[in-house]
Design the sequence.
């Protein structure tokens, strides 16, 4: 079965940065999907069922916390691994993200090597 990663960020340069970080996974058959806001992300998650979602918190239309909550608590898609990406590194923010159903929380600027390692672990590459 094809593995999929969804990259969600309202800033195109961040999407590009994450894509460059994960492009070697594409060579191994992993499909990279992209969304630039929460509503788009939610539609893609429902349709494509990605294995892994890198989800920015601060976005227009629907923020990452709301998307995470809908995916995990309302749609009950527990097999979709969600990593929240945020500039807010406070413990209270991290805890809120985990309460919404996030599997992991990464603070920007993130370490590309760590991001790739996590993606490989989750996808079992």
Sequence:
């Amino acid at each position: 079965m094809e593995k999929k990663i969804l990259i969600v960020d309202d800033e195109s340069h961040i999407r590009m940065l994450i894509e460059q970080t994960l492009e070697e996974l594409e060579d191994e058959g992993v499909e990279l999907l992209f969304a630039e806001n929460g509503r788009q992300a939610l539609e893609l998650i429902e349709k494509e069922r990605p294995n892994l979602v890198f989800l920015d918190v601060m976005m227009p239309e629907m923020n990452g916390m709301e998307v995470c909550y809908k995916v995990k608590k309302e749609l009950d898609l527990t097999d979709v691994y969600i990593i929240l990406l945020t500039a807010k590194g406070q413990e209270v923010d991290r805890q809120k993200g985990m309460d919404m159903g996030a599997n992991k929380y990464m603070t920007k600027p993130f370490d590309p090597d760590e991001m790739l390692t996590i993606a490989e672990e989750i996808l079992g590459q």
